[in-house]
Amino acid sequence: MTERCLACDLTTGDRPLPGGRVYATDAWVVEHCIGPLGVGTLLVKPFRHCTGVAHLTAPEAEELGPLLRAVSACVSELNQAEQVYVCLWSHADWKPGHVHFLVQPAWRHQAASFTAPGPTLQSEMFFANRPPDPEEVGAFCERARAFFASRRHERWPGRSEDR
Fold first, then answer.
1. Using an 8 Å Cβ cutoff, are 52 and 41 in contact?
2. Which residue of 36, 46, 95, 110 has the fewest CB atoms within a 10 Å radius of its CB?
3. pLDDT tens across 125-141, in order?
């Protein structure tokens, strides 16, 4: 039996994705995080199932830096974030999984609910397990799509028309 990949299933539509696809390039897709990391947290992952940065193709690697910059700008602006975390995730149950970059907004006011920023914040958010409201996710994704559409002239990877 072949194990299913949640990341692939969300991209292909085999599992429901709240908010839908936000943005895509030839090699990468941007989606809203389905986990409890808050409204406005986006994921950047290759369309192709890939379990590590060392396994990226040259075209995937070339698009990655500019795309992470673009997605970080989107998350920063739309959330009025004081900081934006960009971190790699690719493990599930200690097994390599579909590599993806989490792009998450952070603010000082979170100190009222969590003990520390960065990885501690993310760990505590998972422990609290408060998934974002799907309607709020959908509204954020609409704003994010508009963000990318309004900046098509900028030097960021463009949307692949056939995806």
1. no
2. 95
3. 999 999 999 999 999 99
The encoded tokens of residue 142 equal 């609409």
Report CA torsion sign: 109, 113, 115, 120: negative
For 16, the 3-state DSSP assignment is: coil
Superfamily of domain 6-148: HIT-like (3.30.428.10)
Measured N-to-C along each axis, helices 134-149 and 58-79 cross at an angle, to the nearest 10 degrees, of 110
Residue 120 CA to residue 103 CA, distance in Å, equals 15
Question: How is the chain split into domains, by residue range?
Answer: 6-148
> What does DSSP assign to residue 85?
E
What region, left, alpha or beta, does residue 121 occupy, with left being phi > 0 and alpha being psi -120 to 50 degrees? alpha
Measured over the CA atoms of residue 37, residue 40, residue 41 and residue 43, the dihedral's sign is positive
Q: Answer whether 101's CB lies under 8 Å from 45's CB.
A: yes
Which pLDDT score is estimated for 55?
A: 96
Sheet strands side by side (includes 28-32): 21-24, 28-32, 42-46, 95-106, 83-92
- Could you report the per-residue pLDDT of 98-112, keeping only the tens digit for each? 999 999 999 999 999
Question: What number of residues does the chain have?
Answer: 163
